[in-house]
Design goal:
By secondary structure, the chain is mainly α. The chain is 61% helix and 0% strand. Helix 10 packs parallel to helix 12.
């Protein structure tokens, strides 16, 4: 299978991964779980992300094992925690509670957010939380980043809808992704959202909620400006990596956003997970003149960054040519 063949380039394996994510069958989940023995931290991180987006109950035990494994790369453990928060079944609780005291800041912060999301989802299941007003009707979802478009193209423009609705708190989002934090209310004024997002003293849950609320309002220049400012001012690698993801999701082409993402990618002292998301966002935005930047850093000394740039160049090519070609044959075979 393409997914497991380490002799292939990372972009090709990513396409197989996205195909399996969208097919969403039990066989797809099993194949993704088997691939978690891969030596690439980037690849394992993306597999954990896919399992969380699929809200795959069968992945909980494996994700919990990854989360508590201190020998595993922090970026992979972070993604395992976020995936457990997305799945939000009762079996996820103990591992998330333990990880809230982890020595790694990114793992600890992710676990705190994931635990809050678990409790939010539980309250929704029990009718104790009223969902925010929908930003768009459910049949008008925005595909967003290049990765999301690639996933969607597997099933002819639709995405898998099998995850249990009882754990999905992202119904208020116009995007197809399962967000780690539900967006703040659409009724909150724009200025208040900006102040909250930029306030280092605010809990990450509130700042994430403000960020996703800003994203959901659309690609206004002032929204992109405040998101880019976070990349300069924030001390949280976790928040900065999510801001990069959002800039790639909204495909913000403004010069300010691109400049901020470029600065992040070029900063060798920045956390690899932030540089990784910056590279993929640049690929998703697909401004032609940034191709040379990605080509330069595909030979970065950090393997995570180098592989991310390789994948980002493939995303850029798909965006420019509007050709999102997943490995449909392999994905369908895995689901058979």
């Amino acid at each position: 299978m393409e997914l497991m063949d380490q002799s292939l380039g990372m972009p090709r394996r990513f396409r197989a991964l996205f195909g399996l994510r969208s097919v969403g069958s039990d066989a797809s989940v099993s194949a993704l779980l088997d691939s978690l023995v891969d030596p690439s931290a980037l690849f394992k991180h993306e597999v954990a992300f896919a399992l969380g987006q699929m809200q795959a109950q069968a992945a909980v035990a494996t994700l919990k094992t990854i989360l508590v494994d201190e020998k595993e790369h922090g970026m992979v453990r972070h993604e395992a925690a976020e995936a457990l928060g997305a799945i939000a079944s009762d079996e996820c609780l103990d591992a998330l509670e333990t990880a809230c005291g982890d020595e790694s800041q990114v793992v600890r912060e992710t676990a705190v957010l994931a635990l809050q999301r678990f409790r939010y989802a539980a309250a929704m299941r029990n009718g104790g939380v009223k969902s925010p007003k929908k930003a768009k009707e459910e049949n008008q979802k925005t595909l967003g980043s290049a990765k999301e478009k690639l996933c969607s193209s597997v099933l002819g423009g639709t995405t898998n809808t099998t995850p249990a609705a009882t754990t999905d708190t992202s119904h208020d989002s116009p995007y197809i992704s399962v967000d780690p934090v539900p967006a703040a209310s659409v009724h909150i004024p724009l200025d208040q959202l900006k102040l909250c997002l930029l306030d280092e003293a605010k809990p990450l849950w509130d700042r994430y909620a403000a960020m996703f609320a800003l994203r959901n309002r659309g690609g206004a220049p002032e929204v992109a400006k405040v998101l880019a400012e976070v990349l300069v001012t924030s001390k949280s690698a976790l928040l900065k990596h999510e801001v990069c993801y959002v800039l790639g999701q909204i495909q913000e082409r403004g010069e300010g956003a691109r400049a901020a993402l470029t600065t992040v990618l070029e900063n060798c002292n920045e956390h690899p997970m932030v540089r990784h998301e910056a590279a993929e966002a640049i690929g998703s935005i697909a401004a032609v003149h940034t191709k040379s930047l990605l080509e330069k850093y595909r030979s970065d000394t950090c393997q995570i960054v180098a592989e991310s740039c390789e994948v980002a160049l493939d995303m850029m090519e798909m965006e420019i040519n509007d050709e999102f070609v997943p490995l449909v044959v392999e994905a369908q075979t895995a689901s058979a």
